[in-house]
Amino acid sequence: MSLKDQTKAAFQKYSSAARINYNKLSSRERVLIIVPLLVIGVLSLHFYIIQPVSATFASQRETIAALDTQVKVFGEVIKEYSRLKARRHQIEEEYKEVATTDSPRAVLENLIKSKLGLPPRDFTLPDPRTEEFGGGYEKTSVSVQLRNITELDKLVAFLKEVVHGPNPFMIKHLNLDKGMADRYLRVDLEASSIRRK
Q: Residue 3's domain spans which residues?
């Protein structure tokens, strides 16, 4: 006789004995046995099935909420990346057309002389600073100090040419200063030129 057959025979023996004894019990005794068994069954069902399933659903709900937030943030990041990439492409296209052989300092010096008509004693152009800019570009920054400016329309024409001329610069800093008793204007600016390496 195999173990399976022995187990089956023992189960039938004990279940028939339990059935006989259960049938001998009064209805009150049956209730006293069934109610605790039902309570034990319900508690077992709660602790071993309902509670773990509920905890799993709660965990999944939190995970889904976190992933939903990440998807929204990721979407915003992609939009910002696309906007910046398009802006970079636009700037690169604008600067592809700019090809100058003159140094930024020389370009600014020529503009000061031609647009403002200032003699060398009325402006200062220190040596430019060059640094890497955005990978394949270099940025050259020049500080410009202008003194004894009397005509604002010439200053406006000069600044317009600096920003929108054939050799465009970015103006990072611009300071206009006029003393109370002074009829002349002083201008300090920092202009940057970007070109491919």
A: 1-97
CB 107 within 8 A of CB 113: no
Two tokens at 141? 């920054």
Query: Predicted confidence band at 77 (pLDDT cuts at 50, 70, 90)?
Result: very high
Whether 151 shows a pLDDT value over 80: the answer reads yes
109, 143 contact by CB (below 8 A): no
Residues 33 and 84 placed together within one structural domain of the fold? yes
Among 97, 116, 142, residue at a domain's last position: 97
CB 111 within 8 A of CB 165: yes
Clarify whether residues 80 and 129 are in a common domain. no
**Burial readout 60-77 (b: 16 or more C-beta within 10 A, e: otherwise):** eeeeeeeeeeeeeeeeee
pTM of the predicted model as reported, rounded to 2 decimal places: 0.53
Higher pLDDT, 108 or 90: 108
Residue 109 neighbours by CB distance under 10 Å: 17
Where among 82, 97, 112 does a domain terminate?
Answer: 97
